[in-house]
């Protein structure tokens, strides 16, 4: 169940009321604005946003690409300027609501077997905001995960390696990259790519330095867990594509990020760490480990972007959709070329 609070200038409230006739809503008038509280089922929210169009100051019968909850802000900003403070749209998930009307709606929805709606694009964008920014906490977690994974690899201990996966922050930037690509935000796309590259490069660098220092004190050997990550195969690209795709689908269906993140970390963390290890104690296997790391990175990104295409995750505004489609096509083409190159390198090694 969602609780939506729409606060608008009083002169615009009358144009919203007809659009909410099939919902449970309440209207409160204040001195300068009107507050409309709407209760809707989760599976109705996205459909309601998609099908409700802007009706503010437009000719009768005209259609606009923006839905009312996003279009209101755009329209009022155009009228009163960016400084307008009377228009706010809030969406909450209450702990529980007791209402006979909503209970009947819920039963009708269950009888019609309507699937649970996916999170709105606004919620997806909000969820990825922190991942498209440089974060010292993420860097520290990635460094700790790399060190823990290195210990597990040298001890040939799968449990320790899995523990490193659990604290790895690698999912966030890939998720953010997929969503920002879907909405065509070029600036954030480049930032996400830089963050992913930084994390992977840092894992390799930490493993290299730590292995070199350890080699000065201990006689290090290639364990089975290390050797397994020195073999590249086309199958790993396919696996990474499927993992990237499944992860975005899982997140869009409300699966906790911690669970989905383990799959991403399992594909990226150990190969990156092994690349750094191999550069010190087994240079002959370093290239294969690097190829495996790149296979997983590119495969996960390609799979994640493929998922946003299949799930039809896109901006709401028609002009934004056109721009996002162009960017998505270019990035998709680039990823296909890179995957082909990696397949060729794998077959030649």
Your description of this structure?
The chain has helices spanning 10-16, 42-51, 68-80, 100-111, 121-128, 136-155, 158-167, 171-183, 186-215, 224-228, 234-252, 257-281, 283-310, 318-348, and strands at residues 2-9, 24-29, 33-40, 88-92. By secondary structure, the protein is an alpha+beta fold. The chain has 2 domains: 2-111, Alpha-Beta Plaits; 121-348, Up-down Bundle (Glycerol uptake facilitator protein). The protein has a 4-stranded antiparallel β-sheet. Mean pLDDT is 81; it is low at 52-77 and 79-83.
Tally of strands: 4
Number of domains: 2
Determine the number of helices (DSSP H or I, runs of at least 4 residues): 14
Radius of gyration: 25 Å
Which residues sit in consecutive blocks of at least 5 with pLDDT less than 50? 52-77, 79-83
Overall average residue pLDDT: 81
Largest sheet: spatial strand order: 2-3-1-4
Order of SSEs, N→C? EHEEHHEHHHHHHHHHHH
The rounded distance between the terminal residues' Cα atoms is 54 Å
Element layout with pairings:
Layout: E1 2-9, H1 10-16, E2 24-29, E3 33-40, H2 42-51, H3 68-80, E4 88-92, H4 100-111, H5 121-128, H6 136-155, H7 158-167, H8 171-183, H9 186-215, H10 224-228, H11 234-252, H12 257-281, H13 283-310, H14 318-348
Antiparallel strand pairs: 1-3, 1-4, 2-3
Helix pairs in contact: 5-8, 6-7, 6-9, 6-12, 7-12, 8-9, 8-13, 9-12, 11-12, 11-13, 12-13, 13-14
List key phrases describing it:
349 residues, alpha+beta, Alpha-Beta Plaits, Glycerol uptake facilitator protein, 2 domains, four-stranded antiparallel beta sheet, 66% helix
């Amino acid at each position: 169940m969602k609780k939506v609070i729409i606060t608008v200038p009083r002169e615009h409230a009358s144009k919203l009321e007809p659009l909410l006739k099939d919902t449970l809503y309440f209207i409160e008038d204040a001195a300068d604005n009107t507050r409309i509280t709407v209760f809707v089922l989760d599976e109705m929210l996205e459909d309601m946003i998609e099908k409700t169009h802007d009706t503010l100051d437009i000719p009768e019968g005209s259609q606009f690409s923006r839905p009312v909850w996003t279009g209101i802000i755009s329209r009022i900003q155009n009228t009163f300027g960016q400084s307008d403070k009377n228009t706010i749209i809030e969406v909450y998930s209450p702990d529980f609501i007791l209402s006979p009307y909503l209970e009947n709606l819920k039963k009708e929805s269950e009888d019609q077997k309507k699937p649970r709606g996916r999170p709105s694009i606004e919620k997806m964008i909000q969820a990825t905001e922190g991942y498209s920014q440089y974060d010292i906490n993420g860097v520290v977690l990635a460094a700790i995960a790399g060190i823990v994974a290195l210990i597990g690899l040298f001890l040939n201990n799968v449990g320790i390696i899995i523990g490193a996966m659990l604290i790895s922050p690698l999912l966030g930037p890939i998720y953010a990259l997929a969503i920002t690509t879907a909405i065509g935000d070029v600036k954030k796309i480049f930032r996400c790519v830089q963050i992913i590259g930084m994390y992977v490069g840092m894992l390799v660098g930490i493993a290299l330095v730590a292995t070199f220092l350890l080699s000065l004190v201990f006689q290090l050997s290639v364990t089975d867990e290390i050797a397994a990550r020195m073999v590249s195969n086309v199958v790993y690209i396919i696996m990474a594509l499927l993992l990237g795709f499944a992860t975005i689908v899982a997140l869009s269906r409300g699966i906790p990020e911690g669970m989905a993140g383990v799959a991403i970390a399992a594909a990226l963390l150990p190969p990156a760490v092994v690349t750094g290890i191999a550069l010190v104690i087994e240079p002959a296997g370093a290239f294969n480990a690097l190829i495996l790391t790149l296979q997983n990175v590119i495969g996960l990104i390609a799979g994640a972007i493929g998922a946003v295409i299949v799930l039809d995750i896109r901006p709401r505004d028609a002009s934004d959709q056109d721009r996002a489609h162009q960017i998505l096509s270019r990035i998709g083409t680039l990823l296909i070329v890179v995957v082909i190159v990696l397949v060729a390198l794998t077959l030649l090694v």
